[in-house]
What does this fold into?
Amino acid sequence: MRVYNFSAGPSMLPEEVLKQAQAEFLDCGGSGMSVTEMSHRSKVYDAIIKEAEADLRKLMNIPDDYYVLFVQGGASMQFEAIPLNMLVKGKADYLVTGNFAKKAYKEGIKYGDMKAAASSEEATFTYIPKVTRKDFREDIDYVHYTANNTIFGTHFNYVPDAPAPLVSDMSSCILSETVDVSKFGVIYAGAQKNIAPAGVTIVIVRKDLCENPMPICPTMLKWSTQAENGSMYNTPPCFSIYMAGLVFKWLLKLGGTDAINKINVEKAKLLYDFIDNSKFYTNNVAKEDRSIMNVPFVAPNDDLNAKFVKEAAAEGLVTLKGHRLVGGMRASIYNAMPIEGVKKLVEFMKKFELENK
Ligand SMILES: *Cc1c(COP(=O)(O)O)cnc(C)c1O
It folds into this structure.
């Protein structure tokens, strides 16, 4: 039986995409071999990676003065790549709004004069600080922030106004909403939340920001290396890129990011409205900063939280346990989670409340 999987990542992929991958698995593009067996330099694979890039450019309306790079190492590797590629003056500001934001900041500190321009750690990251231009230093190379905080269930509902290129970790919200790429210097995302199986990381970077890597920047981390080699300086994560390509086509067919965003908003509203009207469940994130991708919530005590997770799993609603830093439950409802999954979860929550209040 296929379950509704609320995992924060790796997470659900569209069933249609999985079935297509299955159908093509032994013979990809008439090659007589699986995409996992073919040379990344082959004609068939060349078409796959080029089409994936073209489709992502279409979906996000990416301007021509940006590269789209398919790299490895996860979003976490970009925590290092960012300062190594971008520090010229040697200074950058970070918005510390969650666990991954803090990790990015900590990596940055190794390479330059970094400042946490704002943080919500004092309130265990339950809100997004409202920053303005004067919160940043003027002589910086970039501002880094995490658009969606996967663990704490918060989301920036605004694009910060910064005196330097904006670098945004969109690992858990890329393609869930429409963004204006031209407002950013760099957008990056690990694939395994909203795009594809783990393996590929997407980096969308304005071309001029690839020109001055620090001398110590490893060849493999230089964005220019990847750009000059069409993301094939070495063997790329072929299968993950292929799956990303199928997901991009699925999204295009659905009507793009505006269309999926409508569905995502509807899904999130079902869940938040139910939680807000219940005296049993709580979500303690500031309402205006709530994520539509990751919804953390708690029952009245830890025993009930554990019971909830166990009984939900028995009904095919799995991986609802919250992150260890937060406890309780977390429902990750990325693009691939059908609305039926959220409806079924809300029904289960109602039943559980009645039985346990
Ligand atoms: C999951 C996640 C990461 C870490 O991604 P990896 O690809 O595992 O390195 C970083 N940032 C955010 C916002 C995430 O959700």
User: Anything to note?
Assistant: DSSP finds nine helices and 13 strands in the chain. The mean pLDDT is 98. The CA atoms of residues 80 and 107 lie 6 Å apart.
